[in-house]
Write a structure and sequence with these properties.
The chain has helices at 119-123, 190-194, 214-223, 245-255, 260-273, 297-300, 315-330, 333-338, 340-354, 398-417, 421-441, 468-474, 479-489, 522-534, 538-554, 587-601, and strands spanning 2-5, 9-13, 19-20, 28-31, 34-44, 48-56, 59-66, 77-86, 89-98, 104-118, 144-148, 152-158, 163-167, 172-185, 224-227, 230-233, 292-293, 308-309, 396-397, 443-444, 449-450, 453-454, 460-461. With 602 residues, the chain is an alpha+beta fold. Among the domains are: 2-185, no CATH class; 188-345, no CATH class. Strands 1, 2, 3, 4, 5, 10 and 13 form a 7-stranded antiparallel β-sheet that branches. A hairpin with a 2-residue loop joins strand 15 and strand 16 (230-233). The radius of gyration is 26 Å and the shape is globular.
């Protein structure tokens, strides 16, 4: 699968650059969580031999050869097909060069299939997705095509009509056209109102790093969503080309020192989408930061809660953490002052809603309408005891308490900036108490390691996972326990030679091909790397950085993917076993490359 994108239009092809869902299930033209077109294939009056396709972040160029007459000795017609995304529009240009001894007449047209499918239907994750209508046909001679429901009107404006060219010997000619996609939503949708129909802007890091090359910058531009608040990084292609709270905020933590302008855009958008009311369907609560926003039909109709969904236990904490890091990096007081109310509302959410039983820890108990696990490992089976039993909510996740500690420390400093000394002192006291209690309640003496969580009965969930590694980044781990934590992270049960597994190979639920129970996630490792640097484990940070780069080199498209198999280097004789549906490019993984650069320089 290949993807290109420059704006909100996304084009998915197979590995040869062909847009046809018969050769690649996900192939097509997408806009705002809807597949508008599932096939777009060039047809010609001559038989053309496809040579190769050149891929770039915003388009592809495919080269063909043909014979002007059947049976002649040599190919004498060269055709180049260029497809470029720009905003909501796909531009197509055909360039023909004739080496025939006679005048040649060639005709072209596109075979286009227009389907207007919900992106969740394309993924096929639930039987209910089959209720959506599909198989709407757009012929190559149509000027436009439209699908309309009670909630939306989707349109394709088509200027790719059939064309004929007459070319004299030794000369060339070209034709061009475009498809413009549009989605009009008939109800008031906050996310839709902030989108902008334009290509993305250039990305200019404030300082150079050797690992942020044209490939990574192109991948990042592909992920960008143009908004009225600036370009915002989507989570991953093709399935997560939208706003995700946790993903974007963690990317900000990874890159604020190199890409502060993107961090600023992230904070602006989350301020705009911040919840203002309680809503059990979307799990919204005043001050809470959004988990995910969608414009697909299932979300607009309410069959899925993702039009604006808030089922994330950590996004609000990460928002406060990133706000303070942005100020520390830029001294942009005017901007921080402009989002002061949002910071205060996020802090109020912590005090009012996040601690369900007033024990000092943040827990989640899902409402049943959305995600059952609301931390970054959001698979339903990702929080289990060592013997495989699933932990019952409310759950207090270990890394979330680390984020909470970091948040309290950030609020202490932010309140001082806002000239509220009383609250600054309050948050300093909260941070100190949390650190003391955390190192007592989450520590497993028998394992010399931290528990993954506390379950509904406050029992430590004793599985050995990567989660406690995030706590190093936040500073909540007592110095005398940091060494034991690091040694376990780099032990054979967790360390594969490519990176740190999500779950120890000694645990009952370990599966190196699972999503969260034994796989390796580069972003997970990047946050651990930041913690290793913070606590002075520089050589371990460099080791992890070098091994992740080896994994990048072994990946089929030389990218760090969303995740890969947890099989060790020794188990695979040095081959990286990939995860079949991993997003690539993926936002966190691009951020990981920049953290690797920091680790190598530490």
């Amino acid at each position: 699968m290949k993807v290109f994108k420059n704006g909100n239009l996304m084009v998915v092809t197979d590995d040869r650059g062909i847009i046809d869902c018969e050769s690649e299930k996900a192939a097509g033209l997408y806009l705002e969580d809807t597949r508008f077109i599932s096939r777009m294939i060039l047809k010609s009056s001559l038989t053309l031999r496809r040579l190769h396709t050149d891929f770039s972040w915003d388009g592809i160029e495919t080269h063909y050869l043909g014979r002007s007459k059947p049976g002649i000795l040599h190919y004498d017609i060269a055709v180049s097909e260029s497809l470029r995304a720009e905003g909501n529009t796909l531009h197509a240009e055909l360039t023909v060069r004739s080496y025939s001894l006679e005048e040649v007449r060639i005709s072209f047209e596109y075979d286009i299939n227009c389907v207007f499918e919900d992106i969740f239907s394309v993924r096929g994750e639930n039987d209910s997705y089959n209720e959506l209508e599909s198989s709407r046909i757009l012929s190559s001679s149509s000027r436009s095509f439209q699908y309309e429901s009670d909630l939306e009107r989707d349109t394709v404006e088509n200027s790719l009509s059939a064309r004929s060219l007459e070319i004299r010997p030794g000369e060339g000619a070209s034709v061009s056209g475009k498809l413009r996609l549009g989605k009009y939503v008939k109800k008031d949708v906050v996310f839709k109102k902030m989108l902008s129909e334009r290509p993305v802007k250039d990305i200019v890091p404030v300082k150079k790093t050797s690992l942020l090359d044209e490939r990574e910058l192109g991948d990042l531009k592909m992920l960008m969503i143009p908004t009225i608040y600036g370009d915002f990084p989507g989570a991953g292609l093709p399935w997560y080309a939208t706003v995700f709270g946790r993903d974007s905020l963690i990317f900000g933590l990874q890159t604020v020192d190199l890409l502060p302008e993107i961090t600023k855009n992230i904070l602006k958008v989350h301020t705009y989408l911040q919840s203002k009311e309680e809503d059990s369907q979307t799990e919204g609560q005043p001050g809470k930061i959004v988990h995910e926003t969608r414009l697909n039909e299932l979300s607009l109709t309410g069959k899925l809660p993702f039009e604006r969904y808030y089922g994330s236990i950590d996004a609000t904490l990460l928002f406060i953490m990133l706000s303070h890091r942005y100020y520390s990096q830029t001294n942009d007081w005017d901007f921080i002052r402009s989002i002061e109310n949002s910071i205060m509302e996020a802090a109020e959410w912590i005090d009012t809603y996040a601690d369900l039983d007033n024990d000092g820890y943040i827990e989640f108990a899902p409402s049943g309408s959305g995600l059952s696990i609301q931390s970054w490992k959001d698979s339903a089976d990702s929080v289990s005891f060592s013997d495989g039993r699933l932990a019952e909510p409310p759950l207090a996740l270990v890394e979330v308490q680390g984020y909470l500690y970091d948040t309290f420390k950030c609020l202490e400093k932010l309140m001082a900036l806002f000239e509220d000394g009383e609250r600054a002192t309050l948050y300093a006291l909260k941070a100190a108490a949390l650190k003391e209690n955390f190192n007592r309640d989450f520590w497993l003496e028998s394992e010399n390691y931290f528990a993954t969580a506390l379950d509904k009965n406050k029992n430590p969930v004793d599985s050995i996972t990567s989660n406690p590694g995030h706590c190093l980044m936040t500073g909540i781990v007592d110095e005398e326990r940091a060494g034991a934590l690091v040694n376990r992270l780099f032990s054979e049960e967790l360390y594969t030679g490519w990176g740190i597994r999500t779950l120890s190979s000694k645990m009952r639920r370990y599966n190196p091909f699972s999503y969260h129970n034994g796989s390796v996630w580069p972003h997970d490792n990047s946050l651990i790397m930041l913690g290793l640097i913070k606590y002075g484990f520089y050589e371990k940070a460099r080791q992890l950085a070098r091994d992740l780069l080896k994994a990048k080199d072994k990946h089929h498209d030389n990218r760090l993917p969303e995740l890969f198999s947890g099989l060790s280097v020794s188990e695979t004789s040095g081959k990286l076993i990939e995860y079949p549906t991993s997003c690539s490019p993926q936002l966190w993984s691009i951020g990981t490359v920049l953290v690797i650069s920091k680790a190598l320089d530490a």
